[in-house]
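dumping this here before i forget
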Amino acid sequence: MPEYLFRERLRPSIWVFLIFLALIAMFAIAVGAAYAPVQGWITFLVICVLGMVGLNICSPVITVSTRTLVAGRATIPRSCLGEVEVLDGDRMREEQRVATRFLLVRPWRTRQGVLVEVIDEKDPHPGWLLSTKKPTELAMALNHTDATD
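structure:
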C-alpha cells in the first residue's frame, strides 16, 4: 500500500447540504400532503440518508503518494510533474479559463487551489488545476522528494 503524503476529500460545503435538505423537505411536504404525513416523513428520512451518503461518497479525492498524484479518477506519475503554484481566489478564476488544462474544481472550493505543471510532452494537458482547502500542504507534498527515488 502506498504511503500518502497528502490526502483530501473535496466534500461539499455546509450550504450545499442545507440547500439539498431544503429541496428534500419541499418534496417530502408535497408527498405528505398528497398521501399521508407519515409517508412524507418516511420520504424525507430515506432521501436524506441516501443523499447525504451519496454526496460524501461521490466527492472526489486528491491524494499524493511517493509515486503518483491522483485527482478524482485521473492519475499521473510524479515524474511527469513540474512546478507547483499555490493560487488564491482571483488567480483560480483566471487559470480556469485555459481550456487545455485538466480541472478538478468544485464550485464550493474555488477560493484556493494549486496549479501543477505537466512536463510530459505526450500529455494533452499542460497542467492540472486542483481546488483544495489546503493548497500549501498540497504544494509541499508535491514538492516533496524522497531520498529513495
